[in-house]
Amino acid sequence: MKKKLIRTLAAGLPVIMCLCGCGAGSAAEQTPVADTNTNIEANTNPDADENANTEANDAIQDAIEQETSSMEVVTETASEDEDRVPTAQIENVVPAKYASMRLRDSGTIEHITYTTYDYFGDGSEITKEANVYLPAGYSEDQKYNVLYLMHGIGGDENEWGMTGSSSKVKCIMDNLSYYGDIDSFIVVTPNGRSSAEHGAQGSDYMSFYCFGEELRNDLIPYIEKNYSTYAEYSDDGYDMSATREHRAMAGLSMGGMQTINIGIGECVDLFAYFGAFSAAPTSNTASVTAELLKGSPYEIKYFYNICGTNDNVAYQSASSAAKNLANISDAFTDGENFMWMELPGGHDFTVWYLGFYNFAQIAFTK
């Protein structure tokens, strides 16, 4: 598959609506976008040809692309032998063309249930839920990388809004794939509480810290058994570390803490790419992470961080966790496999969707 070196042009005002607080609201509270199953005006005539709806959708999509053409991404084609590398010009806003819902060439979202255990409690068997984004044209004949995308302390598997056609994560992924900015990959949004009481309300926040066991023992094996990934899955066990470069972990707030403490701190043998968006208090400090990685045989392919400078919830903790990490750990080199990004902003989805947009173009590129 052809690789591209991407150089993006920052343009326009932010188009992503923010949700306030750490998990304070579901992404379902975003400004609604019409579902693709809704009949559009052009197809209300009962005698219309059965192809009219498709043609009208195509016309609408063409109009969307024409409207946003002034923010066209500038690309430079690389040779077939070159790997795509992260752009040095990371965006400060999500361009409008990437936040628009695609009416064609779009992926799908599946809601799954899987068996796991009450790792925070008595170890009893429980059933949990997650959402899975599959790229447009998903095929069992193709292998896919996988990003595990974590929520905040007040959210659950739905906090990223990955529940329907108007999902901002889906919009961003669909458009990044369509415009050739990324090689399509799978996104999984699980519930990060590893306990029987894993609801958004009434659960013990300490259960977040047990999620590494669920990832390793239950969730990743389930995904790799049921979807077409690079892993050589076997019910009898398999070498998960052999395909770590095909997995990424990222998250907002408490999910950023999990990415640092669990992804890097406990499961660096399972993941090679990491993204922390406004990493919450209790995130491992840079010195702790540096010590945990000392002598590790596993290369960190990339660690991307973003936080708003007006974030009175997480700026201090995120800064302590990552801002100077490249200065004290040989595992990170600023500008090569590490980035700390800060910009005016609070503890909300304006920052987090931007973080996702930027990280989606960095993951699986080296």
Quick overview:
25% of the residues lie in helices and 17% in strands. The chain is of the alpha/beta class and 366 residues long.
Number of DSSP helices?
A: 9
Mean pLDDT: 82
Largest sheet descriptor: 8 strands, mixed
Ends: how far apart? 15 Å
Query: How much of the sequence is in beta strands?
Result: 15-25%
CATH topology of the largest domain: Rossmann fold
Rough outline: globular
Total strands: 10
**Largest sheet: spatial strand order:** 3-4-6-5-7-8-9-10
- CATH homologous superfamily descriptor of the largest domain: Alpha/Beta hydrolase fold, catalytic domain
**Helix fraction by DSSP (H/I, runs of at least 4):** 25-40%
Structure description:
It contains 9 helices and 10 strands. It is of the alpha/beta class and 366 residues long. It has 2 domains: 4-36 and 72-362, 3-Layer(aba) Sandwich (Rossmann fold), CATH 3.40.50; 40-67. The chain is globular and about 45 Å long.
Tags for this entry?
alpha/beta; Rossmann fold; 2 domains; two-stranded antiparallel sheet; 9 helices; 10 strands
Topology, please?
Layout: E1 4-7, H1 52-67, E2 74-77, H2 96-99, E3 108-117, E4 125-134, E5 146-150, H3 168-178, E6 186-190, H4 211-226, E7 247-252, H5 254-264, E8 273-277, H6 286-293, E9 302-308, H7 315-323, H8 325-328, E10 338-343, H9 349-362
Parallel strand pairs: 5-6, 5-7, 7-8, 8-9, 9-10
Antiparallel strand pairs: 1-2, 3-4, 4-6
Helix pairs in contact: 3-9
